[in-house]
Amino acid sequence: MRTFGKRVSIIAAITVLASLAVGGTAGALARGTTSVDLEPATIDVVVNTLGLTPAAITPGQLSGLEASFPIVGNAKDGVIKHVGGLSLSDGETTLKLTQYFIDTNVGQLTAVASVDGVRVGRIPLLDVTLIAPAAGCAASADLALSADAAAALDAIFDLPVEPEDLTGADFGTACVAPR
Predict the structure, then answer these.
(1) Is residue 153 part of a domain?
(2) Where are the beta strands (DSSP E) in 7-155?
(3) Tens of pLDDT along 19-55?
(4) Cβ neighbour number for residue 76 with a 10 Å cutoff
(5) 128 and 102 in contact (C-beta within 8 Å)?
(6) How far out from the chain centre does Cα 103 lie?
(7) Which of 84, 110, 127, 178 has the least CB density, counted as fewest CB within 10 Å?
(8) Domain span holding position 46
(9) Does 5 reside within a domain?
């Protein structure tokens, strides 16, 4: 009976550790959340004109026109780090954008990009313009697609529009709500 109890305890400990390693780490380390109210017109272009399907990469979430990402670590030197992300797919190619860093010093959100599982590197994704904080937000910002991101999207998906047409597209408004 004593051996059985030890086995159950060991299995329970392994289960807890495994859940932390797989998905619970963000919850254990989360220092708040950044949520983004996505711009409907831009999302319409992404889905209907460009033919790309967005999806959340856990622990990030995407529900309708709102995306959210856990804040991790301490905001050092004006850089707010996140886990999770978003992917874009045209059915053949998938671009994953994860590990968002908002650098308030330079007004830019960068992400680690990978294409079909091959890491490309950290890219400037969105230009960040701080605005008056909305209720419940420590900081708020307008987000616009960077020129580098527009060029990368075109290179990856061979888009039916010119990158210049996408540069500066209103991506949405972010609400940074640390705990």
Answers:
(1) yes
(2) 30-38, 53-57, 61-63, 66-76, 79-82, 85-89, 94-103, 108-115, 118-131, 139-145
(3) 223 334 444 567 999 999 999 999 999 999 999 999 9
(4) 8
(5) yes
(6) 14
(7) 178
(8) 30-178
(9) no
Contact 41, 48 (CB under 8 A): no
Question: What is the maximum span of the chain, computed from C-alpha positions, in angstroms?
Answer: 71
Q: Give the span between the Cα atoms of 32 and 27, in whole angstroms.
A: 9
Helix (H) or strand (E) holding 166: helix 163-166
Amino acid identity, position 107: G
Residues β-bridged to residue 176: 34, 139
Q: What are phi and psi of 11, to 5 degrees?
A: -65, -40
Which tokens belong to 178?
Answer: 């640390």
User: How many structural domains comprise the chain?
Assistant: 1
Q: Give 92-134 pLDDT, tens digit per residue.
A: 999 999 999 999 999 999 999 999 999 999 999 999 999 999 9
Q: Which candidate, 177, 71, 104, 100, places its Cα nearest to that of 134?
A: 177
Choose among 123, 115, 170, 177: nearest CA to 143. Answer: 170
